[in-house]
Amino acid sequence: MQLPGFQHLQPGSLSEALELLAEHGEEARIIAGGTELLVSMKQGLLAPAYVIDLKAIPELDFIDDDDGGLRIGALTRLVTIVNSRLICERSPVLAQASSMVAAPPLQNMGTLGGNLCLNTRCFYFNQSRSWRQTRGSCYKTGGDTCHVVKGGNRCFATYQGDVAPALMALDAKVRIASKGSERTVPLADLYTGKGKRPLALEPGEVLVEVQVPPSPSKTGGDYQKLRYRGSMDFPLVGVAAVVSRDDSGVCTGGKVVLTAVSRGPLEVGEAGQMLEGREVTDQVAAQVADAAFEAARPVDNVGSDASYRRKMVRVLTQRAILNAWGRE
Ligand SMILES: Cc1cc2nc3c(=O)[nH]c(=O)nc-3n(C[C@H](O)[C@H](O)[C@H](O)COP(=O)(O)OP(=O)(O)OC[C@H]3O[C@@H](n4cnc5c(N)ncnc54)[C@H](O)[C@@H]3O)c2cc1C
Q1: The model's pTM
Q2: Which atom of ligand 1 is closest in space to residue 208's alpha carbon?
Q3: Rounded CA gap, 66 and 76, in Å?
């Protein structure tokens, strides 16, 4: 598999990058660490004429205190997040989830922005061009069929990022910029829930920073991940849980967010209500795990059996909630 030809552009500032993106529109793609983009280009899934490299923009690489919360630049490498004392103190679940992305060499290259902007994945999509040609096009590659869900009327490619669920459980927001404009939205709104076009980003837009609000003082988090090889792989299921409690040991709020079981990160909507006002026992965690099981709808497209992955949602959710509760 060879890289297609492209022009490599390396702006030195965010405003220069936004100019270039505005100028080249749909013909341009952003590269940060390149650990996903270059693989996709080699597989013939993307062939941008211009690759706009963010690596020489220091203003996108920072971790700052923000009145008890955090601001993290999109170009911050995952290894920096894993080793950041500030993040480990304020939002340890973010460092934990980052430490479980791929393997250390990829954490050394991969960035927070690149991780949050991952494409959805599918066994019939993430293959070489010649492999795909033997099967014919699917929705994700411009056709009108799905090879996974027979008779399916849309793309079921799965979102498998590890970091978004942890950040969503922490109520994070993202700042997005384009030439002449800027918006800040909840991280959850970055995801469309559509397999074919998973990100609510327009051409010309760059994810600039992630903002994590301060957590209540007694808050714990945990991220659980099922994967084939503990040393390397994308999640087959991932569960992030964040819970807070008051001084009397009663839960004051909680969030549970799943990954790899849908077309975007999936918040278990009922979790907060089920946890709030209660002491988090095995039984309470099991009830939330049942709700997570009901919400998850994995399909057989990223390895392992979908019904097994769905059962593991229940196991990992219960484990994540109890670990988070024990960590406040
Ligand atoms: C073998 C292997 C295993 C992997 N395992 C995992 C895993 O377990 N968990 C996991 O989460 N990921 C995994 N990955 C994917 C990837 O390595 C990481 O998610 C990494 O963090 C991506 O960051 P990057 O900077 O390298 O992204 P890039 O490849 O540079 O970019 C990824 C995408 O995001 C876009 N992009 C990048 N930065 C921005 C920005 N600031 N604004 C807007 N768009 C942007 C790019 O255009 C591209 O579409 C794996 C990859 C490989 C090759």
Answers
A1: 0.97
A2: 41
A3: 16
Query: Is the Cβ–Cβ distance between 196 and 140 less than 8 Å?
Result: yes
pLDDT tens, residue by residue, 183-209:
999 999 999 999 999 999 999 999 999
Beta strands 206-212 and 69-73, pairing class: antiparallel
Query: Residue 93 C-alpha to ligand 1 middle, in angstroms?
Result: 19
Which contiguous run of DSSP H or E holds residue 7? strand 7-9
In the chain the first and final C-alpha atoms are separated, in Å, by 48
The rounded distance, in Å, linking the Cα atoms of 187 and 175 is 9
**Measured from the CA of 117, which atom of ligand 1 is nearest?**
34
Please tell me what DSSP assigns to residue 86: H
Ligand 1 atom 20: residue of nearest CA: 110
pLDDT digits (tens, 9 = 90+) for 48-105: 999 999 999 999 999 999 999 999 999 999 999 999 999 999 999 999 999 999 999 9
Q: Is 37 in the pocket of ligand 1 (CB under 6 A)?
A: yes
What's the 111 CA to ligand 1 centre distance in angstroms? 7
